[in-house]
Amino acid sequence: MNTLITFNDWLPVIFMAVMGLAMLAYVVLDGYDLGVGILLRRASKEDKDLMVSSIGPFWDANETWLVLGVGILLTCFPAAHGVILGELYLPVALMLLALILRGVAFEFRVKARAAHRSWWDVAFYAGSLGAALSQGWMLGSYIIGFQSGWTAASFAALIALCLAAGYALLGATWLVFKTEGSLQLQAIRWARGALLLTALGVLAISVATPWISERIFAKWFTLPYIVLLAPLPLVTVLLYFIIHRSIVRLPVRLAQGNSYGDGIPFACAVGIFILAFYGLAYSLFPYLVIERMTIWQAAAAPETLKIILVGAAIVLPMIVGYTVVVYRVFAGKTRVMSYGA
């Protein structure tokens, strides 16, 4: 039997990796600006303008990663795209509506009259929360293999709430990093409130994935994997500890005029999301639809993948380069933006 692995066999792996990185970039980058939107309702009128300014230069580019990830799923893994989007049709539709509402509210609130701006703030908050909850529901449903029933619905609802809290944690720590004064102190309190529910979500996913699949259980809890993978949960716990320690100590340092370390909570929150994503990807591989369809079964024809690979080799560096430039240009503390009269 011929067991030689060819380049055609590697193509689905390459595109799965690119899709995974795109979705991870979306969750982290759009996650913090969704989190800022979720927290907007709890801020004062003056702080709301500063919060929106903190994400203004970035939020459009952040959503590019979602388009890239879904585009790869559609073109490179059409069989899995049909199953996943078929099972998640309603939450996907709600997410798109929420993102549209959020985008419209972001643009209109700047030009709106003072009497109407509060309505656009509510719309921006609702769009941000709706998108976060929809994505959390999709994640929970996907992890348990699109099962039905009250248990499955309860788990999906729990993950929806926890992902919204995770985004709020990213948003709060982003504001700690990007703002000063009273808003920075308020963001520290928001981060403290979101930390526990975020940890609950990571724990729930960590328990559920090996619970529903003997294959995943064996990948984590048999030798030598249990030893090799032990650093993953240990580092995650360490990052939670560092965030908690930082947000407890930061108010004291800020009162003394010392802002050193105000980026540590955001960096650690990003680290938690990266580690959680890596653990989930390791658990699911090589399946795109858990225990039903592998990446090779779902992949398009090799000839199609080769053509798409050429396009991806051109587009992906452009997206990365643009993202890096934007974050470098708008580095530093945020000031309220203005579009003029």
Structural write-up:
This protein has 341 residues and is mostly helical. It has one domain (13-329). The protein contains 14 helices and two strands. The protein has helices at 7-39, 45-55, 59-76, 78-87, 89-111, 114-143, 150-178, 181-212, 214-221, 225-228, 231-255, 264-284, 295-298, 302-329, and strands spanning 287-289, 293-294. It has a two-stranded antiparallel sheet with strand order 1-2. Strand 1 and strand 2 (293-294) form a beta hairpin. The longest helix is centred in the N-terminal third of the chain and has 33 residues, at 7-39. The chain is globular and about 65 Å long.
Descriptive tags:
single chain; mainly alpha; two-stranded antiparallel ribbon
Mean pLDDT: 90
Compute the CA-based radius of gyration: 21 Å
Structural class: mainly alpha
Main sheet characteristics: 2 strands, antiparallel
Number of strands: 2
Low-confidence stretches: none
Q: Give the strand order of the largest sheet, numbering strands 1, 2, ... along the chain.
A: 1-2
The proportion of strand residues reads under 5%
Spatial separation of the terminal alpha carbons: 73 Å
What's the order of the H and E elements? HHHHHHHHHHHHEEHH
Number of helices: 14
Net shape? globular
Count of domain modules: 1
What percentage of residues falls in helices of 4 or more residues? Answer: over 70%
How would you summarize this macromolecular structure in one to three sentences?
With 341 residues, this protein is mostly helical. It is built from 14 helices and 2 strands; from the N terminus they run H-H-H-H-H-H-H-H-H-H-H-H-E-E-H-H.
